[in-house]
Inverse folding.
């Protein structure tokens, strides 16, 4: 007699895997997605996976999207799991967003900012009307758009960096002066998070948070479970140079650049007991890729958490434990999925307790 | 039989993790090393384990890497297993007591693929390392064996205090008052302690642990066990241990003793496994093809070996 309860797992798993592979590959055109198509035509999906995966590897991010058939949680998970196999060999020096090679920067605080507003590639002002002509596009059309766009590029080069909007506010004394970064940044992938945590650990956790989760908690603050009332001082998207010391000379050299989104919000001032002049509060958000909503949500939560760390939290969005332990997509989706695993033993145990308690009440 | 299990697993898995076996120059760039994790990660886990053994029952925080199986599927246990395993190890993986449960199969396949040379077994007695979810094997473990349990909730205080920061202070103070009150309130409300599994257990007279979702039936096996019991919570990023020959006492009142799951029938007889006839094992309740309720050992290797002894 076979073991009727839990048998045949091995074959079933194998066949399920094959079936999934069939689901991924069956189509009328039989055109496999190229990694290049994923990175460029699915720019925002790609960006989201890069940021939630917490590993800046555009090629593997594309592969993750392809392998996971577009499931953002799963795709980010592939990058994270791969990250576990890589040692941390070195640390780059601290880098400010000021050195970004920008493709976009806006400020909601001032109409005119030093260096000017630069709208860049944004969907903000799109009317969400279907462009039915895209139902059938050809490679020729792609080339035509590229050609006409590149021809119209102005000859004079743009400045490589732009001043930060916050700098002018700081000069006016409207912001607290910058304090030196007290410690080395907290590496959440190498050190355990033990509460209370530093702001650095909070920022690192939020930088790879799941977009929907971090947005939902930030939105609760915006709606009224909190009162940050932010103004976007500056939101920038661009390529940040990555520097490493030269192996021989030790001199810093640029080894590459990463696409990032950075957001700085200015929030209404708090009365600070040990401060003579009140100033605005600041919230900071930054993540890999082009993810504006996430960067804004993060900046708002950074401000909310600073408040919660200083005084006791009045709302969930101000509670570091509540926010930081519930925004990771890999963790929350994993635990939700685990309920699909067999729970025969614990359920047997539950039955025992319920029957026994029922007997007691009879 | 052991060897064929390994070969079979590697062969079947070959297609999906092609980078391991088909080392073309293109895929080789992303090769995975023995034990999957980078060596610094394994070192961190081993250091954490040493601290956990030195302070029995204390939840040691660690960074916890993401594994290629989902959080909640045993990533904590797997990190311990991969940090300890060498090619001379004999590994057994079970889930719900069974070697053939889907999750156990999957974890075993993963280890077979990423740790070439490791011997896989179903036999509890010959395993040097056992990774398990929800059960401690029926067969008494011996000194020198290591049991790794997968843990979803490392902290027994979570039922009375949601904040990790506050719970840490309560553990430090040995303050389990609210847990005792919960047990007392259960008696007042239900005339029974309603905790079915994950029964809070005091280790070495101080820290109270969540022994992972093992049934109450298995809790006494931790007390003065010969084997080293390691607990890994990957998602919650904690590791703790019950070293060999350490006291493990489930919380109970002097007038209300701790009781394990009751397998007596209406006539007051101990139910038996309908397959091997065991009268002492933890049983799974099943509905057979005719709609009748039947009982069977949850520990598949134990059940098989009972059958073998009878032949």
């Amino acid at each position: 007699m076979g073991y009727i309860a839990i048998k045949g797992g091995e074959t079933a798993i194998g066949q399920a895997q094959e079936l999934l592979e069939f689901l991924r590959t069956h189509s009328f055109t039989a055109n496999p997605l190229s990694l290049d198509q994923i990175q460029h035509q699915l720019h925002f999906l790609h960006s989201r996976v890069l940021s939630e995966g917490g590993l800046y590897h555009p090629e593997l991010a594309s592969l993750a999207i392809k392998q996971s058939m577009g499931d953002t949680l799963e795709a980010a998970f592939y990058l994270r799991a791969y990250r576990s196999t890589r040692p941390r060999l070195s640390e780059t020096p601290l880098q400010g967003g000021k050195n970004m090679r920008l493709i976009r920067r806006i400020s909601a605080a001032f109409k005119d900012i030093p260096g000017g507003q630069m709208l860049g590639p944004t969907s903000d002002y799109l009317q969400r009307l279907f462009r039915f002509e895209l139902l059938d596009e050809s490679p020729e059309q792609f080339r035509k758009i590229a050609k006409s766009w590149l021809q119209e590029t102005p000859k004079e080069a743009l400045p490589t960096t732009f001043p930060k909007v916050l700098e002018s506010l700081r000069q006016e004394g409207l912001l607290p002066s910058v304090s030196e970064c007290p410690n080395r940044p907290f590496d959440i992938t190498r050190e355990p998070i033990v509460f209370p945590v530093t702001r650095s650990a909070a920022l690192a956790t939020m930088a790879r948070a799941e977009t929907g989760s971090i947005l939902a908690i930030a939105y609760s603050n915006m709606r009224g479970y909190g009162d940050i009332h932010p103004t976007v001082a500056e939101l920038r998207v661009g390529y940040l140079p990555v520097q490493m010391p030269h192996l021989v000379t030790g001199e810093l050299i640029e080894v590459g650049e990463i696409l990032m989104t950075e957001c700085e919000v200015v929030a209404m001032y708090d009365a600070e007991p040990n401060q003579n002049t009140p100033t605005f509060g600041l919230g900071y958000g930054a993540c890999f890729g082009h993810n504006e909503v996430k960067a804004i949500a993060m900046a708002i939560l950074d401000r909310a958490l600073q408040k919660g760390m200083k005084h006791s939290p009045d709302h969930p969005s101000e509670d570091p434990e509540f926010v930081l332990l519930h925004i990771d997509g890999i963790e929350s989706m994993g635990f939700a999925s685990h309920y699909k695993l067999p729970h025969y033993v614990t359920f047997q145990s539950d039955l025992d307790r319920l029957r026994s308690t029922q007997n007691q009440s009879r | 039989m052991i060897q064929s299990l390994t070969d079979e697993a590697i062969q079947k898995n070959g297609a999906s993790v092609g980078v391991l076996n088909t080392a073309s120059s293109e895929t080789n760039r992303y090769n995975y090393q023995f034990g999957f994790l980078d060596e610094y990660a394994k070192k961190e886990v081993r250091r954490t384990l040493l601290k956990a053994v030195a302070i029995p029952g204390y939840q040691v925080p660690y960074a916890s890497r993401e594994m290629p199986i989902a959080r909640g599927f045993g990533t904590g246990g797997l990190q311990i297993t991969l940090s300890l395993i060498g090619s001379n190890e004999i590994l057994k993986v079970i889930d719900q007591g069974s070697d053939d449960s889907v999750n156990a199969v999957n974890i075993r396949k993963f280890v077979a693929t990423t740790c070439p040379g490791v011997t896989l077994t179903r036999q509890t007695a010959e395993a040097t390392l056992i990774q398990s979810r929800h059960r401690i094997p029926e067969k008494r473990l011996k000194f020198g064996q290591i049991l790794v349990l997968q843990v979803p909730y490392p902290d027994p205080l979570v039922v009375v205090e949601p904040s990790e920061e506050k719970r840490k202070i309560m553990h430090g103070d040995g303050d389990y008052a609210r847990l005792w009150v919960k047990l007392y309130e259960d008696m007042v409300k239900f005339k029974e302690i309603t905790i079915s599994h994950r029964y809070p257990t005091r280790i070495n007279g101080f820290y109270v642990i969540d022994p992972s979702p093992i049934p109450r039936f298995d809790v006494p096996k931790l007390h003065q066990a010969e084997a080293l019991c390691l607990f890994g919570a990957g998602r919650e990023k904690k590791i703790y241990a019950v070293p060999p020959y350490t006291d493990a006492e489930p919380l109970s009142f002097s007038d209300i003793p701790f009781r394990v799951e009751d397998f007596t029938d209406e006539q007051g007889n101990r139910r038996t496994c309908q397959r091997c006839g065991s009268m002492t094992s933890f049983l799974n309740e099943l509905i057979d093809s005719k709609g009748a309720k039947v009982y069977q050992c949850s520990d598949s290797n134990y059940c098989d070996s009972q059958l073998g002894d009878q032949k």
Summary: The longest helix of chain B spans residues 39-54. Chain B touches chain A through 74 residues (CB under 8 Å).
